[in-house]
Write a structure and sequence with these properties.
Largest interface: A-B, 28 and 28 residues
Strand order of the largest sheet of chain A: 1-4-3-2-6-7
Oligomer: homodimer
Largest sheet of chain A: 6 strands, parallel
């Protein structure tokens, strides 16, 4: 349908054989790392990469090392044929979908840990999650050697952690962040939304509503006290009977340190279990001068 | 005197500006990571890199993260002018000597850990040492983006750990190992040899003697029992009154697991404090058929 051909590659050997041929023509490579179950959020990352690079690689790999022992690695949705179609329509040249054995062969024993940034927020309830994320990103960056890698702002802590790793380990690539894509009613796109039944789907809107309320309290009503902002957010979330709060936080946008007062830019972030499904979302808040 | 010019670079910015210019002519880059205090062992690595690559970068950086809290990072010898001369004479194009601040700026918080391989041998008495080694090597590999990196076999565990990291994180370079260079009497070259006074220098020969005895016991006398081999090694080391044994080990050459029986290739390794100076050495043992 006017779309270019998308090559599916499952081994590093084929990837290595394919990419240098393309790169030697002087082209730049963009990487969009995903766990599959692609949605419009991923498609926006792929389109941006396709605009900014000569070759776009979309990796599809449900990375076991970023799931905790009681988490949903097996349950995680796998929809490869559909993913390839979405990736192609968004402009991907390569879908790289390796097996777990290809990524973590016998004897594998190296991990990348990013301190400080990973203690709070999602790191508090998922203690090995960001070690898994950082490690698999380091590996994908090694395999693909991209000039740019694209991450969504929905996973804000992940974005900050990957940026930190790239700077700290002097990796030769640019981390590009892209705005969260939302359903028409405001729910952030997430592969995990597929788990929500009709009732849970409706109640999931409390995440976005609590974040918009936080932004309005700070930016319009001039509230600076984070305890007050967080209390208002919790009240909104608790209107949903299926909601169980993991965290409600207002943090520094780079250090992710919890703030007591919003004096400048901040990020409000929430993680909420709606029935069995853990959802996250965040919003940027800009406090303009003190009241 | 007939040697090419060697450029000294202290910042990543200048390194980045210098290297792509050279690389774009299609040349390969070799990296020899060192902590300075260069000796004939380093020179042999540099010469090999200069033979095998178009550009050779020697990094000189006394890496604080690989020293323990009670170890000798301040005392470690620093001899930059002399190092540059040795590097130039051995064929280096660039001496990269960054400051601690350049390598570890404020906010740095990412570490690379290699499990399993780092629990025993030197890792047992230096619990954060290999984390520091792996991290600084990952950083140097990022900064220089070498095609090949050169490591001496004297630091055998380091060599195995770096190889593992490069494989596990899919880094695009070849780790080249080079034989240990020795003084005429057999003492392995080491920057720490400079700490030895005349008496300690003589007694330091027990390391090499214990390793040669282990090799002879296995390869010539057909001894296969590691306890017997280790006991013989300890007896030899104890003839030196200044010697305090850290470890005496016979391990698998790749997994570094301690062996009970030498059935195939093995590595005998020792770490011994001679007065205040910790020295290490190792030897490859090849058991040819069982007795």
């Amino acid at each position: 349908m006017g779309h270019k051909r998308t090559v599916k590659i499952t081994t590093m050997k084929r990837l290595k054989a394919f990419l240098p041929r393309r790169k030697s023509r002087g082209g730049s490579v963009g990487l969009v790392p995903t766990m599959g179950a692609l949605h419009a959020g991923h498609a926006s990352l792929i389109r941006r990469s396709a605009r900014e690079n000569d070759i776009t690689v979309v990796s599809i790999f449900v990375n076991p090392t970023q799931f905790g022992p009681r988490e949903d690695v097996r349950r995680y949705p796998r929809t490869l044929a559909r993913d390839i179609r979405i990736a192609r329509e968004a402009g991907a040249d390569v879908v790289f979908a390796p097996s777990v054995r290809e990524v973590y062969p016998d004897g594998f024993s190296t991990y990348v840990t990013v301190g400080r940034l990973t203690a709070g927020l999602c790191g508090a309830s998922r203690p090995t999650h960001f070690r898994g994320v950082a490690t698999v990103c380091a590996k994908l960056f090694g395999m693909v050697a991209p000039h740019r890698a694209y991450f969504g702002e929905k996973d804000y802590q992940q974005l900050v952690v990957v940026r930190r790793m790239v700077a700290d380990l002097n990796m030769n690539l640019e981390v590009v962040s892209c705005p969260t894509v939302r359903e028409p009613d405001g729910l952030a796109m997430s592969s995990r939304n597929a788990y929500l039944d009709a009732d849970a789907r409706k109640q999931a809107l409390v995440l976005r509503r609590s974040l918009l309320a936080a932004k309005a309290l700070v930016e319009r009503s001039g509230v600076r006290n984070v305890a007050r902002v967080a209390a208002a957010m919790r009240r909104i979330i608790r209107t949903a009977p299926l909601a169980r709060i993991d965290y409600v936080a207002v943090v520094h946008p780079e250090t992710l340190e919890p703030l007591k007062t919003v004096a400048a830019d901040a990020v409000a972030a929430v993680a909420v279990n709606i029935a069995d499904t853990r959802l996250i979302d965040n919003i940027r808040i800009r406090a303009k001068g003190k009241r």
